[in-house]
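Go through this pair.

…
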Amino acid sequence: MTTSNKLKIYLIAGEPSGDLLGSRLMRALRNKTNDSVEFFGLGGDTMEQAGLKSLFDISELAVMGLIEVIPSIPRVLKRIKQTVNDIIKVQPDIVITIDSWSFCSRIHRALRKLNTGIKQLHYVAPQVWAWKKRRAKTMYKYVDELLTLLPNEPQYFTKHNLNTIFVGHPVIESDALKADGQDFRKKYKIGNEKQIISILPGSRHTEVSKLLPDFLTAARLIYEQNPDVFFALPTVKTVVNRVKHMVKNSQLPMVILETEADRYSAFQASSAAIAASGTVALELAICNIPHIISYKVAPLTYLLAKYLVKIKYVNLTNILLNRLVVPELLQEKCTPQNIVHHINELLKNGRAYEKQIEGFSEIKDYLTNGTQTPSENAADAILELIKC
């Protein structure tokens, strides 16, 4: 521990989903230490709003796919070296990496080789239950502790000598649960007769470029069939310029949303959503917003994934419930016509709608652990590790 009164905590979140977890963790750590903590590292908008000055813009790391990542490798390697050098300079009490294990593992390995003596922790387990199970066997070499979001995950790591703690999923802390859909309608002058559909094409450039064209075509078809719809398109800093460029000639009744507050109030006003597969689908689920999820990657990436990934579903709601609740439109199934079909079924408030709402009611039980928030549980585990 440092000789100064304040703890030095180095946080690394390479993607917007990790950025959100990081901001909540920062708030919990401030509360647990009576604000006797300093933060350093990498993060996005929400972590910077919580008081972190990011070493560089994490949008540079927002690449997804086995093939798509190849052109970015030299830049990413340079950023890894820069990050490790900064950690050595700061000399924090602990380095906490959040999600993005492919990027973060290289930082942990580099620190281990340097024998820094700095505590190392990873928050959000790699999905070894889906693929790359060998990761579970080696993580203990690179981190002192692992915090997981799901209750079934510790078993994969504890048997391989890694202290692993289930803390709960921070999605249940989402401000979306407190948002007001009527406020959204008033702010953007959307009448109550309009059915709002949220469009969420992802936070990575590769996701937006592959998914948004189909999402917009589907939106056009839905609007032609039903003029009483309005579209909300929440986005994030990493891809906002690309989104605006792609949407500018759509001539759809649509608003692009750049703030978290608008994003969540739009959720609460929405009758349905079209979303990229990811954490956002869980947020929609806990808000009882019926939705479909879609995803596309490069054809070779998809072929490799089919061979490597050993799970029936890709959407976490479906995985946790072990049944198909939310439609998954992946690769060639991700077409405007398929999207329109499923969204129209949800807008009817019939059996497809009821099936999702029933499934969502079960989800929260899988995501909680105790009376504290997941971020508070994580903060306790981190502070205990620093003491050791």
Summary: The chain is about 45% helix and 15% strand.
